[in-house]
């Protein structure tokens, strides 16, 4: 007894239909099974090709990043220099201002004929005279560097 299902196998059945040719049994897959289970043909890359592609992309990205950073640094350096110069000038301006202003306030608080006021006035005058003499000495000796203390 043969069933109707033996002649028409179920859809998705992976059995091949036996056929005979020149007395030998040959199994031929059904056409629908072959097309149903065949993987679409795509370009298959090897692992080395994939890694090479990734490495190339990474190298390109690093190179672009380096170029962008260089351009940004070229623009930033003059701004940083100007800011540092302004900061240095301002720092020493306010140090000098605070020193002189404090000395002037103290001088105004002291009595005109007091010993402290006289000592501050004479010390400041002597300091000014020492600076003038030092400048004159440098000019006559060809601007030699100052000795370290």
Q: Can you tell me about this structure?
A:
A two-stranded antiparallel sheet has the order 1-2. The protein has helices spanning 4-7, 31-37, 47-109, 115-140, and strands spanning 17-21, 24-28. The chain is built from four helices and two strands, in the order αββααα. The protein has a domain at 47-91. The protein is rod-shaped. Residues 1-5 have low confidence and may be disordered. The termini are far apart. It is mostly helical and 149 residues long. β1 (17-21) and β2 (24-28) form a beta hairpin. The chain is 67% helix and 7% strand.
What is the compact description of this entry?
The chain has helices at residues 4-7, 31-37, 47-109, 115-140; strands at 17-21, 24-28. It has 149 residues and is mainly alpha-helical.
Largest sheet: 2 strands, antiparallel
The overall pLDDT average reads 77
Instruction: List low-pLDDT spans.
Output: 1-5
Based on Cα principal axes, name the global outline. Answer: rod-shaped
Q: Which structural class fits the helix and strand makeup?
A: mainly alpha
Report the end-to-end length measured between terminal Cα atoms.
122 Å
Give me the count of strands. Answer: 2
Task: Report the portion of residues in β strands.
Answer: 5-15%
Q: Classify the helix fraction into a percent range.
A: 55-70%
CA gyration radius, whole angstroms: 48 Å
User: How many distinct helices?
Assistant: 4
Oligomer: single chain
What's the SSE pattern? HEEHHH
Strand line-up across the major sheet: 1-2
